[in-house]
Family 1 glycosylhydrolase (Hymenobacter guriensis), 442 residues
Amino acid sequence: MGLQFLFATGIENSNPTIDHGKQRVDELEKCGHYKHWQKDFDLVQELGIRFLRYGPPLHTTFVGPGKYDWSFADVTFQDLLRRDIAPMVDLCHFGVPDWLGNFQNPDFPVLFAQYAKAFAQRFPWVQLYTPINEMYVCATFSGLYGWWNEQLSSDQGFVTALKHIVKANVLAMQAILEVRPDAIFVQSESSEYYHAKNPAAIKPAEEMNAKRFLSLDLNYGQRVNSEMYEYLLDNGMSRDEYHFFMHNKLKHHCIMGNDYYKTNEHRVDANGSTRASGEIFGYHAITHQYYDRYHLPVMHTETNLWQGPNGDEAVNWLHKEWANVLRVRNDGVPVVGFTWYSLTDQVDWDSALRENNGRLNPVGLYDLDRNIRPVGAAYKQLISDWNQVLPTQSMCLQVPIVMPSEHNCGWAQKQREDRSEKLAAPTCCAVPPLGNENAACA
């Protein structure tokens, strides 16, 4: 295969619990994917997309320690393989099975890593993974805001959820690499910024701007600043737990996925309360902050906007975000992909899934009747226009992707063997070539 930019979409598979565990919010059910999954994959191909953020529902697939129900995953992933669509497999999206409880459970990291390994063994042709989606958001909404799962509202609840979630992500990466040594991990993480409303709000805003990096700092083995170190230890993280993250670095297998929505920027009051500020800095400025910290290839892994009364609001946002991606790239940051999230409209995200109202959120490339929206047509055209242009312009836009149909090719097998021997090898921002110019199997 030739070189290509990773244009993607996603199928929303959030499944947190609310009402103190009494209700499960299953977006795959609400958006009709269980019924229309074949049609949804048709739509992905209709758009000219070859990369899909997608994963099986954890709460119905992981049925007990060492016990898995692969019935839905088997039929859907076999169909993705047949279509040669490369999934970026989202193994945990905001919720865990009832038997695991919630993210305060210290057994979660090891058990989740076992699940990740079992998945990789069952689907060895899968290369791209997001083990745990938006770790910072998941810990914040579950342990600090009191919205989901454990519904705690404390710093200790947040730190406990965070350390378990990130440790689970790290252990899952290690487990997957045992099966697929050339696996690539795309961290889909919310990129945030907190603006001080007045001078009295500068300190709480600075604290929040340090806290927003905690999930990726721990995941990548990046030392936190002294204030955040004290914060972690004061709220339930031990020195040994912190050292675990510093000593288990898998950064060289990762692409940093940055999610950006209008709600990702916040205005902070002197008392530490926040509200959405709308877009002020934008994706370009905030992504530079994250890249300057981690120096990893970047993918814009989520964005969307409601289609409003004029019908062009989402289209205009798509072009604005794409312009930001090009600006970041032209500044020398190795940007390897872009995602409109999600394929179809969503349900109840206007309340951050806190309420089970059944309210339609018109943010998809298609509506829930699977009719294309204006932003879907615009994205299809954008992909067609840019797909063959971007890869020729920078060697930083090359990723060692093995498409599903190439899994058994000799060169792909050799790549896995080479990676198995060099798991600890360092990397630089100019990542190795995407696939192989002579990708046909012998």
Observations:
- The mean pLDDT is 93.
- DSSP finds 15 helices and 17 strands in the chain.
